[in-house]
Amino acid sequence: MHPLLHQELLTKIAQGSESALAELYAEFSTRVFNTAIGYLQNTGEAEEVTQDVFVKIFQSAARFEGKSSVSTWIYRIAVNQSLDRLNHRKRQKRFGLMVSFFKGDSLEQKIEVPHFDHPGVVLERKENARLLFQTIETLPEQQKTAFILSFVEDLPRQEVAEVMQISLKAVESLLQRAKANLRIRLDDFHPDRRI
Amino acid sequence: MENEKWKDEVLNSLEGIQRAQPDPNLYAQIRAKVVAGSMQVVRRPYLALAAACLTLLVIANVQAMRQSPVHTTQSSIYVVDNANFSLYR
Prior knowledge:
The complex is a heterodimer. Helix content of chain A is 72%, strand content 0%. By secondary structure, chain A is mainly α. By secondary structure, chain B is mostly helical. Helices cover 58% and strands 7% of the residues of chain B. In chain B, strands 1-2 form a two-stranded antiparallel sheet. In chain B, β1 and β2 form a beta hairpin. The radius of gyration of chain B is 39 Å and the shape is elongated. The model of chain B has no long low-confidence stretch (mean pLDDT 78). Classes of the chains: A mainly alpha, B mainly alpha.
């Protein structure tokens, strides 16, 4: 679909058109869901975020100023909603740890390491991809966003820069640092080091 | 050396990744939320109007109470004779 048609759809959504929202959903739902899955590594939560993103689009379509493409705008909402959900999850985890501390439970039992199998990964790479997702989880927010948009969502670097509202150079630098950090963290998972 | 090669393989494991698909019924849930949200927006003006009316009513009452003088027993034209339960002018 042509970017101008995206804008037309958004204008209709701003006027309350549900059929325009359905068309926009058909065009972008997979991208939004896939982005959310990169962050949350959980299909149920990624679907909830996808819902929130489209409800937000419906509510704020009138405020779209056209300074970026519709696609960039939607990705930005998806990234923000996913990060919000991650922060909410962290807060819940902290609260859970506190409760278990006061109850006298073992803290180790409460810290879950996600084992996520992305449904779109080629079968022979599944185990490596699982390790990669585990280590992506440990990256700082900005590096995580650059890595997910570039390698999970496979966006061109320029679009990643537009979504993140930073320069192309900054994206490349974030990706370099992300890869260096992932290499360091992967040391703990090397087959020879695992018990 | 072997370790570095293995890390490269892990880092490249997302090559050729296909996009994951959400549940086919997800849009129905989104539509329900959107409709529920629109109904709330429609109800809000009535709520605001009701709140405004209530506020006006309270203000009018307060004003009325301030303006009307309070009658004390001294200024009353009736005096009660407690012993006989009769009224004298």
